[in-house]
Amino acid sequence: MLYHIWVRHHLRPGAFWSLPKGERTLLTAFTLHEIDVLTKPTPSSLSTSKGKGRRVIRGR
Question: Is the entire prediction scored with pTM above 0.70?
Answer without folding.
Answer: no
